[in-house]
Design brief:
single chain; 6 helices
Length: about 170
């Protein structure tokens, strides 16, 4: 997101890199404030929710956020701030929901092992995404990594909806 903001200084939309850095810092501060208000309530909500509805909703929400970056012409607008903060908050909510879903189905005696494997493969995925998204950023445009995120979330959304339709994803308590 910081490179995305800086790209507007390079293109002349923003006057300096310093202005882009200030925008990025406001986005991060806004995200931290929003997450601090939302995370505890959401954690409680996750325990009470039907994951067959919650998980697809979160993936659809972040996919829409990713598409929104294509339409941003100036990162200093109010809708740009809302989009950036919403993307970060929904990403955190996705993580919490997926971890809760993942841990619900695992027997307690292997939960730590599975959590470790999950984090290991998550780190590989995040690194791969960063490398590929960086190439897209350089070769396609600053909005391209967000479209990649949107495409990945859409693919997972479709996969999840198929699982739900086939009855493979059951309601968990």
């Amino acid at each position: 997101m910081q490179l995305w903001a800086l790209s507007f200084a390079k293109s002349g939309v923003l006057s300096t890199d310093s202005v882009a850095d200030q925008i990025y810092m406001r986005i991060i501060i806004g995200s931290i404030i929003a997450i601090s208000f939302v995370s505890g309530v959401f954690g409680f909500f996750v325990d009470k929710s039907d994951m067959r509805i919650l998980v697809p909703t979160l993936f659809a929400s972040r996919a829409l956020c990713g598409v929104g970056f294509y339409f941003i012409d100036d990162p200093s607008t109010w809708y740009s701030y809302i989009l950036c903060i919403t993307t970060i908050v929904v990403s955190m909510l996705q993580y919490v929901a997926i971890e809760a879903l993942f841990l619900r189905g695992i027997k307690s005696h292997i939960r730590g092992t599975m959590q470790g494997l999950s984090l290991f493969f998550g780190a590989i995925g995040a690194t791969s995404f960063a490398l590929f998204a960086g190439k897209l950023f350089d070769q396609v445009g600053p909005w391209a990594p967000f479209m990649l995120m949107s495409g990945a979330d859409s693919a997972i959304l479709i996969f999840t909806l198929i699982w739900i339709a086939m009855g493979l994803l059951k309601k968990t308590d």
